[in-house]
Amino acid sequence: ATDPDALAKRYPRLKIYGRYNGTLAKGGEKLVLENPLGQARVTLKYNDKAPWPSAAAGEGHSLEVIDPLANPNDPANWKASTKKGGTPGK
Fold it and tell me: Which of 20, 50, 79, 87 has the least C-beta neighbours within 10 A?
């Protein structure tokens, strides 16, 4: 998260492992989320084309996981954020 404090305020039960200052490729890429020990916790490959949510493809919305226990590689398990500017919104 670029703003871990805002994320923690919005999702108080979420474990936050640090700040992310990078950017993600608009055309999609492989993403690996690691714990503080460097162990992969979630690996997924997202895309900006159907069946992935189109509003998150350069329209200013972020992708939000629907069910964190479901398959992260299933586009149906993701939705576009309701607010532009990312999750939880700016």
Answer: 50
pLDDT in tens, 30-57: 989 888 898 998 888 888 888 988 887 7
Number of folded domains that form the chain: 1
Q: Which domain range does residue 38 map to?
A: 4-80
What secondary structure, in 3-state letters, does the chain show? CCCHHHHHHHCCCCCCCCCCCCCCCCCCCEEEEECCCCCEEEEEECCCCCCCCHHHCCCCCCEEECCCCCCCCCHHHEEECCCCCCCCCC
Give yes or no for a cis peptide into 88 (omega within 30° of 0).
Answer: yes
